[in-house]
Amino acid sequence: MADLFPPAAELTASGRPVLLSNEIECSILSAVDLECDEIPSFPLLKSGIIILTTHRIVWISDSTNSSNSAVAVPLAAVNHIFSSKKSIKSMFSSPRVRFQVSFPSGGGLRSAVVTIVIRGKGDHEVFVSKFWENWRAKAWENDDNNNTKGSSSSSASGPSSTGSGGFYSSEGTVRMVGVSGILRKEQEMWENTDKSLQEAFQDLNALMSKAKEMVTLAEKMRQKLLSSTNSHSGATNDDEVASKEEIQDWLLSVGIISPVTKESAGALYHQQLSRQLADFVRTPLDIAGGMISVIDIYCLFNRARGTELISPDDLLLACSLWEKIDVPVMLRKFDSGVMVIQSKSYSDDEVLARIRTLVSKPDALQFGISASDAARTLGIAPAMAKEHLLTAESKGVLCRDVSPEGFRFYINLFPEINSEDLYLVKNYTIYATWIKAVTANRPR
Amino acid sequence: MQKLGDFKLPHFFNYPPYFTLQPVKDTREKQIQLWKELILDYCRTQKIFVIGLEEEFPLFSNSVIERSLSHEARVAFLSALVSDGRAEWLDKGHRKCLILWHRIQDWADIILHFVKNNGLEDSVMTVEEIRSGVESRGTELQGIDRTILMRALKQLEQKGKLAIFKGSSTDDEGIKFSV
């Protein structure tokens, strides 16, 4: 198992790589092959998407079906990147990038040369320079340091294993032991937090460069809030809990650490954006009950992206690409032109049943419901509530009442009324229930 | 139960959507059906022969729930009666509608019954006598709309059951039965 190289990479439901903590995507190219002649077991990796991140090179097969496969080469394993030779031959063949990696094999380390063949039209020179840049930046080492220094980060990110034991860490600082250790850790954390806050707000540029840390900070604060609510749940009053929850929600929506940008994805921009969006919408969709308006998602998505905002057109394009890739969400356009995002498992029947219950209540039987009544009860936007009501009407569940008082919906009694005998009321029908409700509440 | 004069209204008369023309096909068809029945019922019991669209018509509004039919809805319901042969527009502008709770054919049969019951097979009557004479008192012919009566009589004339002869004014249009 240890001999398996390159290792498989985890993917999200919509076929985007699951990023490690602090990992950021830098460049994406399509129609890329990975080749290695020296390893017999090296799989056939033809014309996929290659994503260069600060930590890894991820290769994803470019198939639209659900069985996406992916492998990842950690940059930490790269020993050497060969600079490409400029020759006449190289002008006509596809650009290639060769690099040497070492990997564990049979107890020892083996090294091999891997070639990236770029067949697509992407800007390979940018890719190569980013590759160099990230390889030299050694972002994974920062992670290791963070882990050693010690917040309780349990993520086994990167190919790290800081095996140093004893009271001293590799840098020689005192390791955190016992209560004093916890206090020291706390103190250190606050100092760091204070420092990064001060630095961040010096000017906008600084903020931009600190964006990643801010996201991490936000995440940490959220965790802290979460744990403190748990431990003091008995003592805190409702107000505090509510405000804490609010802050949590806030912090929760802060961050997509590695937004897909035109710069990083190039020609694959919309496709990758589409996949990232599909991953992103799942949480708000769950909260909204399976359907959410495109406008709401536009706001949430851009807030999560922070600085790399996308245009409404990009969002629509990304949504419309969902049809072509296998994702659990879809774009839906109502007859009125209102557009929503809904999960594929979402069913109109469920909403229909809820509306039916809503209009069967005694008050609603007598006075009907308006779109805003439905919005309040169903917990959705009025525009969407109206769409649901209109759908229910078209299915014969509801019928409308237009009067100077407004536009209201009632449960549809027409099918239950006998047109042969206008006065006939069958027992145990909604019509009978309605008559009871109306006569009971009649003021006169 | 709510009443309109001595006319007993069905429960659904207080159902607000009953007064809004429904846009969904199935619902609308049922709504129109119910309105057709109610209009015919009401006109039959109240002996109403003509509904003027621009005049107040008690059935077309409900003060209890403060709803009334729009002009469009009135036209839709009456047009449905017209296409069923249970009503006729009296003018091209669709402002007055003749309600036929009995079809002309049925009215003609009623007249024949009336003639036979009263032994008038070979007699002569004026049109006005049929509408308000002693013989017609208590029958459906009492107070019948003149237009409807004339149409029924003309149909009978074509079948050779009677002859209409004109006097100097409408009042003395005479009918010679020959049943």
Return the average pLDDT of chain A rounded to an integer.
77
State the helix count of chain A: 17
Secondary-structure element series of chain A: EEEEEHEEHHHHHHHHHEHHEEHHHHEEH
Q: What is the correct CATH architecture of the largest domain in chain A?
A: Roll
Helix content of chain A: 40-55%
In the CATH hierarchy, what is the class of the largest domain in chain B?
Mainly Alpha
| Tally of separate helices of chain B | 5
**Total number of domains of chain B:** 2
Q: In which order are the strands of the major sheet of chain B placed?
A: 3-7-6
Mean pLDDT of chain B, as a whole number?
88
CATH fold topology of the largest domain in chain A:
PH-domain like
- Shape of chain A, please? elongated
Give the beta-strand count of chain A. Answer: 12
GO molecular function (chain B): protein homodimerization activity; structural molecule activity
GO cellular component, one term (chain B): ESCRT II complex
Family (chain B): Belongs to the VPS25 family.
Organism (chain B): Cucurbita argyrosperma subsp. sororia
